[in-house]
Design brief:
Layout (H helix, E strand, L loop, with lengths): L17 E5 L23 E2 L2 E2 L4 E2 L9 E19 L10 E7 L7 H5 L4 E8 L5 E5 L5 E10 L3 E2 L1 E8 L10 E2 L8 E5 L23 E2 L9 E19 L10 E7 L13 E8 L5 E5 L6 E9 L3 E2 L1 E8 L1 H10 L2
Antiparallel strand pairs: 1-5, 2-3, 4-10, 5-8, 5-9, 5-11, 6-7, 6-9, 12-21, 13-15, 14-20, 15-18, 15-19, 15-21, 16-17, 16-19
């Protein structure tokens, strides 16, 4: 598996991604391309247009050309890799595909997108059926849309566009959730993720179930579990939300928050860390909100839970360093 697959999927419906144009979707809707869930398949399940597929499937072409779908990235950013997943498409997958990108402000319609300056991200390349097709992208530009071209026709289950999220600072308020993945935060480390990945904890929206959070295995020692979040931008934290929604018999008993400015301190030096939130008791299935006193700027925040358990969401509302935010955006636009 390529390393870029560990990065967020910028096209995912989780971040608000969507298909804004498809020239054909006769057998299966193009909206499936950006669904966050893995594709599924039930054999011999037929509708009025044939076997039902969890993906985008076009009709068989009887003239020259190729089929196209344009995806608005829910989280614009720098693309590092693409996964053209043909899961369950065997005799009907496209033999070749390519991917282009463009950066356009606002909310363009299909006509405006057709006239946009598209840049090749993945050249026309062969695909394998019923498989993930992974392509590394060598680009340092920020993109808002991608265009999937399939040659000449066929079916694709999912399009994953993995990369580094770079928000437009003009569209952010003065205080926002600096631990949110959609703003560019990421998980930098954790002690355990047996039942659920900590990336879930910084995903948009409320958790839908216990499976939509970070959950560790049961500890049988005297230690505790933790997760390290690299903030979207160096910030002063003003409000912390520790959400244990859906975790009832397995919520942590308590938690702490600590911060560090890694530009001047060392992550592995305990003396460089400062307290954001002292150890507080947590209740099951509850959204806890705690004001944070004025503290130094943090680039990373560590959540410690005692002794183990599950957290649905972590929200850290803070006042960002605007100069850093603007510089990062300008460097890729």
């Amino acid at each position: 598996m390529e390393e870029f697959t560990l990065l967020p999927d910028l096209a995912s419906r989780t971040f608000g991604g969507g298909v804004v144009f498809a020239n054909d979707e006769f057998f299966a809707a193009s909206d499936h391309l950006v669904e966050p869930a893995a594709p599924v398949y039930a054999p011999k399940t037929f509708g009025h247009k044939g076997q039902v597929y969890d993906g985008w499937e076009t009709r068989r072409r009887r003239q020259a050309g190729h089929d196209t779908a344009i995806v608005r990235l829910g989280a614009p950013g720098v693309v590092h890799g693409v996964d053209i997943d043909t899961a369950f498409f065997t005799g009907n997958y496209p033999p070749h595909a390519s991917v282009d990108g463009c950066a356009i402000e606002g909310y363009p319609d299909p006509i405006q997108l057709a006239e946009a300056p598209w840049v090749p991200l993945v050249p026309r390349s062969p695909l394998v059926g019923d498989s993930q097709n992974l392509f590394t992208v060598d680009s340092s530009q920020r993109y808002t849309h991608v265009r999937l071209n399939i040659y000449p026709d066929g079916g694709v289950a999912r399009l994953r566009v993995h990369g580094e999220i770079v928000p437009d600072p003009r569209l952010l308020p003065s205080v926002f959730d600096v631990a949110a993945a959609e703003h560019g935060a990421r998980i930098a480390g954790c002690s355990n993720m047996f039942y659920g990945h900590p990336h879930n904890m910084i995903s948009p929206g409320l958790a839908r179930s216990m499976g939509d959070g970070w959950e560790t295995s049961r500890r049988r020692d005297d230690g505790n579990d933790w997760v390290l979040v690299q903030l979207a931008v160096p910030s002063v934290i003003e409000l912390a939300e520790l959400d244990t929604s859906h975790f009832k018999g397995n919520a942590p008993g308590s938690a702490t928050l600590r911060g560090i400015d890694a530009r001047t301190g060392l992550l592995d030096d305990p003396t460089d860390w400062f307290d954001l939130l002292p150890q507080v008791r947590l209740s099951p299935d509850t959204r806890h909100r705690f004001p944070v006193s004025v503290v130094p700027v943090a680039t990373h925040v560590r959540l410690d839970i005692f002794p183990d358990g599950g957290m649905a969401r972590l929200r850290l509302h803070g006042r960002p360093d605007g100069a850093v935010l603007r510089a990062r955006y300008e460097a890729v636009t």
